[in-house]
Write a structure and sequence with these properties.
Blueprint lengths: L29 H10 L7 E4 L6 E5 L2 E5 L7 E2 L11 H10 L12 E5 L4 E7 L4 H10 L5 E7 L5 H11 L4 H11 L12 H10 L7 E4 L4 E3 L4 H13 L1
Parallel strand pairs: 6-7
Antiparallel strand pairs: 1-2, 2-3, 3-4, 5-7, 6-8, 8-9
Helix pairs in contact: 3-5
């Protein structure tokens, strides 16, 4: 809908540290909502909130954060940075919006991989043809004491769907998944009653638009591959909470 534009707002916005983001109280931004949706026919605004900066509002549309004023006279898309703290407020808000409880996920429909004592938890929505998902499996070889719940999320085409079914329906799904993602050993054809449609629906509800999408024990999410050091740090931070 919008072209990705990285806009550094820190140079033109005045920090208002005493202000906090307000929730989209019922009716608080009705006029802005109407103006925004009139400017972009067919677009539905999910929520509008105040930001810590004067005359700048946050607009949530289909899992994307945009910024505008009360009249919706302009739209900005990109990272909103605080000039004093250097905090990426857009990323911070996305973490809040994407945070969930792992117990709300259908973990019984996941392919379970246990490393070491399995004391830490990681949930990964992945497509079997996703290059960065395969890279994540390579990275996981450097991580110990973790239980990985792999949710098959075949969104890259019909072959992804076929492979996801072959993996999930295999006699040993965990071994088959590891062999394909880590070694390129194509799974043998297999069919069974599988939860792929359910997992796709769950991913859509979570606004997952790419793979891998990684959830940690504290409910926070990382979109995309993480190098081992960052993955380890996120696991430790989640466990500490």
């Amino acid at each position: 809908m919008f072209k990705q534009v990285r806009t550094v707002l820190a140079a033109v916005l005045v920090s208002a540290a005493g202000l906090v983001q307000a929730a989209d109280a019922p009716g608080a931004f009705d006029a802005t909502r109407k103006a925004f949706e009139a400017a972009f026919p067919g677009v539905q605004v999910d929520a509008i909130r105040a930001t810590p900066y004067p005359n700048l509002l946050e607009v949530q549309v289909s899992g994307t954060l945009l910024y505008t004023d009360a009249q919706a006279s302009f739209v900005l898309q990109g990272a909103l940075l605080d000039s004093k703290t250097r905090v990426d407020l857009t990323e911070q808000r996305m973490q809040e919006l994407n945070k969930i409880s792992l117990d709300s996920l259908p973990l019984d429909k996941a392919i379970k991989l246990v490393k070491g004592d399995g004391s830490r938890s990681l949930v990964v929505f992945e497509d079997p043809n996703c290059g960065y998902c395969k890279r994540l499996h390579t990275t996981l070889k450097e991580i110990d004491n973790v239980t990985v719940y792999s949710m098959m999320f075949p969104i890259l085409g019909p072959d992804s769907r076929r492979k996801a079914e072959d993996i999930w329906c295999a006699k040993d799904p965990a071994q088959t998944l590891t062999a394909w993602m880590g070694k390129g050993e194509r799974p043998q054809k297999a069919s069974c009653d599988h939860p792929l449609d359910q997992l796709l629906a769950v991913g859509q509800q979570l606004r997952i638009q790419g793979t891998p999408a990684i959830y940690f024990a504290d409910g926070t999410r990382a979109d995309g591959w993480l190098p081992a050091a960052q993955l380890q740090a996120r696991l430790e931070a989640a466990a500490a909470k």
